[in-house]
## 1
Amino acid sequence: RTVYVNGEYVAENDAKISVFDRGFLMADGVYEVTSVIDGKILDFEGHVLRLERSLAELGMPMPMPADDLLAIHRELVSLNAVDEGAVYLQITRGAPADRDFAFPPEGTPQTVVLFTQSKPGLAGDAAASKGIKVISIPDIRWGRRDIKTVQLLYPSMGKMMAKAAGVDDAWMVEDGMVTEGTSNNAYIVRGNTIITRHLGNEILSGITRAAVLRFAREAQMTVEERSFSIEEAQTADEAFITSATTFVMPVTEIDGVQIGSGSPGPLALRLREIYVDESRKAAV
Ligand code: PMP
């Protein structure tokens, strides 16, 4: 695989980052993951806008114009012949001369890394026709989950807790209400109404979430942006998650309780189809 590191395209084994990089030492960095279908980037604009916001919230500049970032995405997809998969992008506050809690002086070059991941079958229905099962776990992450930082230890632990419980993922709960999945936004469906937590510092504003809510409204579904509990979710007609890499993925079980019929719900599957079709058409 060819990867991008600080202005250069290099073989992954030749890529180098300083041991003093603040991404490595302090999780002082932000990231984006953008899906690829038919060798094209999905919703680049949404991802780059969120990236700019994440950087701004942490007092970091954009290291280069958005167009240049898009060009790197495209070049890597082409160099690595990715048909279906993802592009991972990470920007850190760079590598000061020594480890220090204080931010490095202004002008310290940021670290910019991008790489691709091939995932044949990504846009297909194999995984979605089965759906996933989740458990609930307490949400003990920090208070600025709206910033897409590389501080992913607790979500990783959550995935491992899910694995240990024999399921696929975990929904996190704070003050009795679901915040989001470990790496996705969480939804339930009652009748024709789609319910998902309102935006705020407590969750990441998903790019897929924004698109799916728009498609849901266009398809005459009702959207309620409010928090819900695990108990409410367990009595819902359907449940699902969204993320850039899973699109819309039905949830069939929460904490051992079957949701609806126990099979992927019709609204979730319909939204997935609309999302994949529309994203494919708009991909760049
Ligand atoms: N919430 C969290 C915590 C996430 O890590 C992700 C995936 N990056 C999402 C939500 C979904 O965001 P998106 O649709 O932009 O991938």
## 2
Amino acid sequence: DALSQLSSLSSDQLQALASALTTEYQAHKDKGLKLDLTRGKPSSEQLDLSDALDGILNGDYTTANGTDARNYGGIDGISELKALGAEILDVKPEQILVGGNASLALMFQAVMQAHVFGFNGPESAWNKETTVKFLCPVPGYDRHFSICETFGIEMVTVPMTATGPDMDQVEAMIKADSQIKGIWCVPKYSNPTGVVYSDDTVKRIAELAKIAGPNFKVFWDNAYIVHDLTDTPKTLANIMSLAEAAGTEDSILQFCSTSKISHAGAGVAFLNASTANLATFKKLLGIGTIGPDKVNQLRHAKLFPTVDALKAHMKKHAEILQPRFECVLKHLNEAFGDNTLGAWESVEGGYFISFDTQPGLASKVVTLAAEAGVKLTPAGATFPYGKDPEDKNIRIAPSVPTMDEVDAAMAIFVTCVQLATVEQQLG
Ligand code: PMP
């Protein structure tokens, strides 16, 4: 059809197409809908799945090793949850610290440790250097970028591919520049592209410390490790065991949390690190708190007595989420499957679908959609400093709206992309 051969259309044909799309767009607008595809958080239906947390202890606050969870102490968390975190990440329980409700807080603290205090004594602190840089695979997660910005860490982008960050570029950049001290990675169902890093990519990242300057750290944010939408999920290689085999385990800091498993604002976060790094991390953490919320940790241990119980729970999330993702993909396939107006990865887990318009159109599409009642994440949000150099990436988050709302919002979205593209073609 016309959209698959835009460049060969006459200006009259383009004009006719633009006016048809404008009519369609106006019809959407006239419905006066108020829809929102911005929020990467669980719906209340998903949160309901974990409401048994409330009251689950039934007055019994004693942990497996006999401590009273209500009292102070236990900086690295209760043993039941170290075991659970270790099973989720397939690492040793003694290499797990169980924190509060936010893995983001653990990441922030880890960057602070490395930047201000050093993981290897004060001389190893990044702030001893004139310039500190991080590699940021893009599109990526804006809150990672905000942490870098807060510490004045310069962000250098590297493109995401279907197998993870472009590793030839990553290695070349790290070899050429010892000021690069870290890299952000969301290795499974990456935010926002949904990509799972290939085994080869994981191995190469595990070994980056061998070619990097001193004190290099990989921030391995495994936020979506158990967030599969299919029964046959892709597997992710184990970065910590690969790093141990290569002798680079001190360069790996791995994170995850139950934020999108139980209650997003009242869950439990995990840090996995080498014995040496954990000891250093605990020391600083212990300055700021006497211990984490062990009562909540114990509640989670009761709700998820085994990793299998947790995985069964995740299937219930998938039943709610999967149709929403399918609906988004159906709209994208129907509208852009046979033309070059948009590009996206098929998504088998996580919370997002990442859509690329043709260059220069993302902000236009976001504005058009907003005017027709569909709120989208601001264009640029998936890039450091909020600047997408090609202005083409849009993050779609379908978890919160109802199925009907996702359907209606996506119908509007595709019209906006088509209209913006045809108008650009018209010049
Ligand atoms: N990492 C990624 C990649 C995320 O998408 C999110 C949530 N949007 C987080 C971390 C935040 O996790 P937490 O709630 O554990 O801080």
## 3
Amino acid sequence: MSPVASPPMPTTEDVYAALRGVIDPELGSDVVDLGMVTHVDIADGTVEVGIALTIAECPMRGQIDAETRRKVGALPGVETVEVVTTAMTKRQRSELMETARLRARERAEPTRVPTSTRVLAIASGKGGVGKSTTSVNLAVGIADLGFRVGILDADIWGFSIPRMLGTTDRIEAGEDKLMIPVEAQGLQVVSTGLITDDEGTALMWRGLMLSKALEQFLTQVKWADDLDYLVIDMPPGTGDIQMALSRLLPQAEMVVVTTPQQTAQKVAVRVADMARRSHMPIVGVVENMSSFVCDHGQTYELFGSGGGEQLAEQLAVPLVGQIPLDTSLVSGGDEGTPAARHVADGPAGVAYRTLAAELVRLVPPLEDETCVGRMAKLLEAM
Ligand code: ADP
């Protein structure tokens, strides 16, 4: 394999764009918007970010620190991230509260995905690599770790999620005209495959462009307030939809699914490049259809080998999972019984449960303990 040239360092603008993904869930905005970033210094692979915390003993300090390291560290060319935290002055604090209040008033738009929800966008270069299968089994796997999980089928042309989850329920609109997700396999599920075909709803969907459909789903679905993770099954390939997602949901992060075939990687790299250009961090690569273990224990690499590792290396992200070929994924997909739960001890079941745990480790749920309670007291005392 030819050596991979190290990418150039990001610009200050790139770092600020990445910091827009560091969100204070309760204040409902990002650290840049809230004026918490004091400085950004870039030198020789190291990026130093100054963060002014609302109060020195802010319980979210650890989370903001870790998020800053993760998001800035995901930028190509960054080797080390230093975070220098200081405490805000009284005046800065009241300015921040002013911004937070303003954002709270504006918050009805652009999306209804809670700011405390982690968003994992599952993407691939081309169709047929097992992106939807991965989205479903990953969502079930994360739910089985005790989290509240939603799945959004944004692959509106090839929607297969409802079948994989064994649901034929219809999404209904609540009194406030917002769509209520269907519950299936313990997940909140939204897909165009679940839209009622009554006239009003049909009208709403007619002629919707792909990225518009995503926008509709993000702005008009009433997700549970306590949703820990939202898994989005992205349409294959690159395009407007990645851009739309990073604009609407700056907290979204991408997981790229590929196969071991080395030739499949070029198009997957393009998807990742597109994500990075719109400042969406890439959590890692999942290699699907990795190998086949027959009943006699012999391993066959039917679709070649090394593709996942090669892509991960090229993107400078970890290979977060390798899913073997397993017929229980096909039958489970047809019968609505995801292998990650229903054949949990089979080869794919084990691999998906391991992947779910790894992604929860890399993208931990957001704590809901915040500084606002303490700040309110401080402000009262001012
Ligand atoms: P995509 O969303 O990338 O188009 P799908 O998830 O729909 O791909 O998968 C395509 C087909 O491959 C489906 O029939 C699915 O059951 C099958 N499949 C996916 N992953 C595996 C696997 N690891 N082993 C066996 N079959 C698989």
## 4
Amino acid sequence: MKAIAVRPGTPNSVHLADIPMPELASIPNGLGVKVQVLQVGVDATDREINDGLYGNPPAGFDYLVLGHEVFGRVIEVGPAVRKVKPGDHVSCTVRRPGSSIYDQIGRNDITNDEVYYERGINLLHGFLTEYFVDHEEFIVRIPDSMKHIGVLAEPASVVAKGLEQAWLAQQRLQVWRPQTAWVLGAGQIGLLATIMLRLRGLDVITFARQPAPGNIKAEIVTATGAQYVSTAETSLTSISLSQKNQPDVIFEATGSSQTAFKAMQFLGRNGVLIWTSVTGGTHTASIPADQINLQWVLGNKLLLGTVNGNNRHFEIGITDMALAEAMYPCLLSRILTTRIPGLSHFAEAIQLLVNGKDLKIVVEVASND
Ligand code: BGC
Ligand code: ZN
């Protein structure tokens, strides 16, 4: 069967590969689930892997099948599977357990191991292919009524985890009533964060480079009642000076480590800054270190790095997406701006990713009707 693969470490090595059909029996104890892939979303992580900056092939392979944001339909299940049945729509988690205590308790998203296993990213083949098989533990059911946005389940899990961890960590304060949030970046993660923070009742300002007119990102942001600010027109500093209150939450999702550090200057007292950008490059940053250090110490501020999401975060993300459908009808599907018809058009998908103009690119592997 067809698959889209790269040779990690070699820039622009994306190619169409022919790989064997996966076997249900490869998962022991009758717990395998075989899924027909319908859609796969691609994101900046795929671009970084194709740039040769990130990712590794599985042991014994010189290539890695890409794709970690999957939506599909179950076609076969092992005799012991309880969670799903043929015909069900599903997504699948990305990370697989290593050996740390966290992996053993189902929290491989916070593994202590140096080496981590992620489908389509690190040491495990991904989902940009026609069928995959996995253990039922990692399969996540998506309601049929959400099949038009099911491909957003993985990125939604990443945002859901970041917010859940921040809210848990803020219990350190005994009383925390966050009112304002800044979201930096309006890619899929920034937009999902905007929506989920609005669902939690916060006033949100979302910052991104592009000016607002004719910009779908700005339209999605403002449809939730959040404010969109183009940093090409207005700086973070001037917004910060014009606001009564500094943000209680900053959710950083620009993909720029420099912005991640810069954000530290704007967080309010007792606030939490959530870092989600995965930056495989070698950029450095110059920051007003004394000033930030002083403000962070005197203001009891918290910096939280977060990556990946486990089954529970997928479930929170899917629940939030269902609520978003009710609050802001048809808004989520507007994130899915660009559809690539079939695996053989892989070069187009990568070219669009490299150009960076499209909000969300989805490869339509098979019909989703
Ligand atoms: C994925 C996460 C993954 C992370 C780091 C992100 O693009 O969405 O699931 O853990 O990359 O590899
Ligand atoms: Zn991703």
